[in-house]
Description:
By secondary structure, this protein is of the alpha/beta class.
Amino acid sequence: MTLAINGGPRVRSQDFPAWPQFDHTEEEALLRSLRQGQWWRVSGKENTAFESEYAHYHGAPFAVTVTNGTVALELALQAAGIQPGDEVIVPAFTFVSTSMACQRVGAIAVPADVRPDSYGIDPEAVRRKITDRTRAIIPVHLSGHFCDMTAVMAIAEAHGLVVIQDAAHANGARGEGGKRIGDWHTLACFSFQNFKLMTAGEGGLVLCPTEELRDRVYLYSNCGRPAGDRSYNHTVVGTNGRLNEFSAAVLRAQLARLAQQSERREANARLLSEVLAAESRVTVQGHTAHATQHPHYMYMLTLNPDDGRVPDRNRIVDCLIAEGIPAYRAYQALYRIPSFWLAPAPSTSQAQLIAECPVTEHIAAQGIWIHHRALLGSVEDTLDIARAITKVLG
Ligand SMILES: *Cc1c(COP(=O)(O)O)cnc(C)c1O
């Protein structure tokens, strides 16, 4: 069959469900926050309400809303006392903000390879990267699949390290024994940018395990000024990371829709993985026992060599897009991104990191991800994703 990219018929004649989704609840939230007459969090009610609703949903005692997920990571690192020159272990395969936030606070991001099944940070690789300057680990629940948190927490405890979960893909995710993100008692960062599983266009949040950490994250997000201060007593060097009231109001409506959307995505992702198991030219991201609820920010797969030939991943992504599939190239390995080598950078070489991270090398070169809105349709919609993959690879 002629490929759509060559002028043939598209597998998808209609688009998948649009993203973001909204209804009268977002509209009412926007009007409510507008009519509140107070549009910043300092005198409004929406941020405070959203923080307690979101924290409760994730099993955490406290949350602080912030302007975006990148700033959430920077503030969490500062609140945890990470200093310039400290080393922070991050997965080599993640969005750049995980490491860039470390650089922004003067810390050195140290990439560790990921696991071939879950694409989450490999505990063995983490152990190999620990030095006497290591202060923290940032595990990323990649695409929403929980990484091996039991192992990460054990390493952190043995070496006295801070753990900050980068949960930008993982709203509502659950790990072993059904544990929620807050149940691990660490700082955890979320993003609410337009693509994410909940969104107000932009936005972020830090879950906090203690009131002391909540106060510190707030302090850094409030230009270093403690809540309630009237005498301009700024006690730390912070920034303005406060989220406005309109965004928080929209996010309350988005949270109310999350569970139902996740259920649909999980069911469709299971179906898609069953069908693609018969397609020898791809390997889908595994689903290990470390993840009991996988909300699927991304549906991820890698291309396998075909008759010994290396697939042209970028061309295949372009072909999938032409067939009507919202497909994207996987992230680059952190150590292949130019900004990673600007100060502060680890005192190692790109060649060394390439040698240490074979799994990241493979996923970054041959990985494809499909946006979660494609999993919000019907069974037939979902089967179209498999049909398009088979057509393009054929
Ligand atoms: C989206 C994302 C972030 C950053 O969030 P922004 O709100 O875009 O700043 C951080 N980490 C990961 C893994 C992400 O995907």
